[in-house]
Design goal:
The protein is of the alpha/beta class and 138 residues long. It has three helices and five strands; from the N terminus they run H-E-E-E-H-E-H-E. The longest helix has 23 residues.
């Protein structure tokens, strides 16, 4: 006698609802992380003003170099020494020719610190450089 009977195997199929949930969660994560990384800025930097200044569109992959009043250089919230900054810029130029760089210097930063960063960019063959300014509040 066969007491087991026929045990039907459940049909294995592709579950679409959990896949849609995962896609929406990933979408939310990437949109949120993009918004937070869009403006890599140091809060203690007061930009100089320029009447011709305007809010420019950020370029994809743009690297922001912040220069504090004391002359410290900061990229991605990391303080870099001269040698470290030179290595980072050289790697950028080798990996991504034409890499855009935005220099954000405090308005009271001595000129020599800005020139030091520009000289490092030139030695690393980075030529696509722009400077951040603020629009004056009239």
């Amino acid at each position: 006698m066969n007491f087991r009977g026929r045990v039907s195997q459940p049909q294995v199929g592709f579950q679409l609802a959990p896949m849609i949930d995962i896609v929406f969660l990933l979408l939310c994560f990437f949109v949120t992380s993009q918004l937070f990384s869009q403006w890599e800025t140091e809060m203690d930097i007061t930009l100089p003003t320029a009447r011709s200044g305007r809010i420019a569109q950020r370029l994809p992959g743009e690297i922001i170099i912040n220069i504090t009043r004391a002359g410290d250089t900061i990229i991605n919230e990391r303080r870099l020494g001269r040698d470290e900054l030179a290595k980072v810029l050289e790697r950028l130029a080798q990996m991504f020719p034409g890499q855009p760089v935005l220099v954000r210097a405090d308005r009271l930063t001595p000129y020599e610190h800005v020139i030091r960063v520009l000289d490092m960019c030139r030695r690393a063959d980075i030529w696509n450089i722009s400077f951040a300014t603020a629009v004056p509040r009239d």
